[in-house]
Amino acid sequence: MAKRVERNHAYPLRDAIQLIKENATAKFDESVDIAVRLGVDPRKADQNIRGTVSLPHGSGKSVRVLVVTKEAAHVEATDAGADFVGYKDMLEKIQGGWTDFDVLVASPDVMGDLGKLGRILGPRGLMPNPKAGTVTSDIAIAVKEVKAGKIEFRVDKTGVVHASIGKASFDQQKIAENVRAFMNTIVQARPQRAKGRYIKGVTISSTMGPGVTIDASHISDPDEVAA
Questions:
Q1: Are residues 118 and 8 in the same domain?
Q2: 226 pLDDT above the threshold of 70
Q3: In which domain, by residue range, is 163 found?
Q4: DSSP-assigned letters across all residues of 64-96
Q5: I want to staple 84 with a disulfide (CB 3.0 to 4.6 A). Which of 7, 66, 118, 221 is the partner?
Q6: pTM score
Q7: Alpha carbons within 13 A on the beta-carbon side of 11
């Protein structure tokens, strides 16, 4: 598989996606992952890129959503599609080490209690955050957005943003549109104080396949929509 990819070549988005799909030969439906190297200094608070993006075709993953809120909003959360809903009972389960969920949505009035569980939730990236839309009074909207394909991203300490933006079984058009939506959000998140080249490199890969570098200068070009 590695021989099919020229390591020092930046491929048009269409060709990169085709290579990814050809190299996704595992017996399971591999994820399509993207890594974007940014010209930022994550040590500076105003350059610690973080945000969310609603992928037009979702990530292809089944997301387990826990809602922690007071009883008045329990029915609303359940009707919106939350997998787990509760308050004191859920806090006790988490305190006991339970983290069998992917996203935690919480109402502002319970954050004081959740903050006490930071040592459990924080290292796993499960602590709700207003910037990610997971601390909100609009519980139903937040749950529906997460279930529909809204994902969170954050730059790591080396200046790279990693995310899963689809499945190898998606057709090329869907993968291309998810890549474009993700990259547009990254570009819009550029800090005012970031100097020099902002997007330094973009690579996509399947779970078990080699990375393929994309020519980032043409990702938003209409001609780069995969056929």
A1: no
A2: no
A3: 2-59+150-224
A4: -EEEE--GGGHHHHHHHT-SEEESHHHHHHHHT
A5: 66
A6: 0.81
A7: 19
Phi/psi-derived region of residue 136, left when phi > 0, alpha when psi is between -120 and 50, beta in every other case: beta
Tokens of 16: 């990169």
Whether residues 207 and 135 share a domain: the answer is no
Q: What is the pLDDT of residues 11-60, one digit of tens each?
A: 999 999 999 999 999 999 999 999 999 999 888 888 888 889 999 999 99
CA-atom Rg of the chain in angstroms? 19
What contacts 90, CB < 8 A, 6 or more positions away?
Answer: 66, 68, 84
Q: How far apart are CA 86 and CA 92, in angstroms?
A: 10
Instruction: Encode burial over 14-32: b for 16+ CB neighbours within 10 A, e otherwise.
Output: bebbbbbbebbeeeeebbb
Average pLDDT over residues 187-200: 88
Q: How far apart are CA 72 and CA 76, in angstroms?
A: 8
Beta strands (DSSP E) in the chain are 31-38, 50-54, 65-68, 84-86, 103-106, 150-154, 160-167, 199-206, 212-213
C-alpha–C-alpha distance, residues 11 and 9, integer Å = 6
Whether residues 75 and 87 fall in one domain: yes
What CATH number has the domain bearing residue 144?
3.40.50.790
Indicate the residue type of 29: D
Q: What is the CATH number of the domain that holds 189?
A: 3.30.190.20
Q: Identify whether the C-beta of residue 31 lies closer than 8 Å to the C-beta of residue 163.
A: no
Retrieve residue 131's tokens.
Answer: 């910037």
Round to whole Å and give the CA distance between 213 and 54: 23
